[in-house]
Design a protein that fits this description.
Helices cover 42% and strands 18% of the residues. With 436 residues, it is of the alpha/beta class. The longest helix has 22 residues.
């Protein structure tokens, strides 16, 4: 832990002058207060102790007199801190404002936050319990100023991010990505806006794909060391809410364009469907499809949904190693959709579904105009999100192979036994020559 922000109104800057005070106080200024002001000028000895510890060479500390100045500094482009030590009591503030400040801080920066106050755990914890559910371990347990030292605070933060990419590793990732984005913009500056518009067919989403493609190339040449360091960690089998949300980011996205696309997960008649209509048909919707959208029904894997699968005859009793693998006795008749967002444009809640490979459905939209299929013209259909690549194409390939499989007779038992014996043959080693 190197870069630390402290938010506390008891730093006695007013002992030097009456204001107005700067947005943020650097360590050199606070060190001057620590060294030059008498201890009696500090109304809270614990704040003096904390400032003295953080003004050392071990830390890159910045100090704020209120949550508002901290948030203004963050909005102006300050590099996010590794950790924030946050007092709860400020003149003119209240619980709602403090809650909003922490919510914004945790949502806008990869920082760990330690509430450090005279009120103690009982006075603050009930007011931030929802934030801990939302942001997990990045909001540490509230600590009372009288019962913990700066050294203990620092140790607790380090322990909290052990095994994560927090701290200096996150800084390296941020630097690599920002550099890649900047280089992407440099390359794009050499291309006329009209050419970019033509390349992207006038859609902002295609422009995003171009920028991200360039970022991918830049990271591939200049950012691989730090990325390799991240993925070189020991594998863990543990599943967490944070992991599920990250998997959701990988598998699904929220398109800005209202055009229908293959891979969309649509809400229709209270159920979820996976759109399989080909992209070329959606561009010339009436001409190619006769104004019909085709989708596959999806079932949520909750108690009711799993029960319905068994009632319908699916023996769903195991999960394969990938979403398109054979899933238990149900085989390839089901495709897994893990961690689907339950609400558009947010991943606060996710749930698991399966695509039923044989449950094809379609609907006629007789009033749809010529051209691209747009959701505004499809009454009763609403897109929740879209399955990303390569998963969408993999699902379509699996569904197509299942529905078009011709089937073949089983091998005779004798032949099956013989071929299994052939498959179990192992070539002899040099020490064990083949017997003649």
């Amino acid at each position: 832990m190197k870069r630390v922000w402290v938010v506390d109104d008891e730093i006695p800057l007013h002992e030097l002058y009456g204001g107005p005070f700067p947005l943020r106080l650097d360590a050199e200024l606070v060190r001057h207060l620590v060294e030059r002001l008498p201890a009696g000028a500090w109304h809270e000895p614990k704040v003096l102790e904390l400032c003295r510890a953080l003004c050392g060479a071990e830390y890159d500390a910045t100090f704020f007199l209120s949550p508002e100045t901290m948030l203004r500094s963050l909005a102006q482009g300050a590099i996010p801190p590794h950790a924030v030590i946050f007092d709860w009591e400020y003149p003119g503030s209240n619980d709602e404002k403090n809650h909003a400040a922490l919510d914004h801080l945790l949502g806008a920066s990869f920082a760990y936050v330690q509430v450090y106050t005279h009120l103690g755990e009982a006075g603050v914890e009930p007011k931030v319990s929802d934030l801990r559910i939302k942001y997990g371990g990045r909001l540490l347990q509230t600590r009372m100023k009288a019962s913990v030292t700066p050294t203990q605070l620092a140790q607790e933060i380090r322990e909290a991010w052990t095994g994560t990419i927090a701290g200096e590793l996150a800084d390296q990732v941020r630097d690599a990505v920002l550099t890649a984005v900047e280089r992407s913009l440099i390359d794009m500056c050499g291309v006329p806006r009209g050419a970019i518009a033509a390349m992207t067919q006038g859609t902002s989403e295609n422009l995003v794909h171009i920028v991200l493609s360039k970022v991918r190339d830049e990271l591939g040449t200049g950012g691989t060391e730090v990325l390799d360091e991240i993925v070189a960690a020991s594998f863990t089998a543990e599943s967490t809410e944070s992991l599920r949300r990250l998997m959701s980011v990988w598998y699904y996205f929220f398109p800005s364009h209202e055009g229908v696309r293959r891979g969309d997960l649509i809400e229709v008649d209270g159920e979820l469907g996976f759109v399989v209509t080909p992209p070329c048909d959606l561009v010339k919707f009436p001409k190619k499809t006769g104004r019909r959208i085709t989708w596959l029904r999806c079932v949520r894997l909750d108690e009711s949904g799993v029960g319905k699968l068994h009632t319908d005859g699916y023996e769903f009793n195991a999960v394969g190693n990938s979403i398109i693998a054979s899933h238990g006795s149900a085989g390839e008749a089901l495709v897994l959709l893990p961690n689907v967002p339950l609400v558009r444009d947010t991943r606060e809640t996710v749930a698991d579904y399966v695509v039923l490979c044989h449950a094809w459905e379609s609907r006629l939209f007789s009033d749809a105009p010529p051209g691209i299929a747009l959701y505004r013209h499809l009454d009763g259909l609403q897109r929740r999100c879209t399955v990303a690549e390569p998963f969408a194409n993999a699902i379509v390939a699996r569904v197509t192979s299942v529905i078009s499989s011709p089937g073949t007779p089983d091998l005779p038992k004798g032949e099956l036994a013989r071929l299994r014996e052939v498959a179990s043959f192992r070539a002899p080693t040099a020490a064990q020559p083949l017997k003649r």
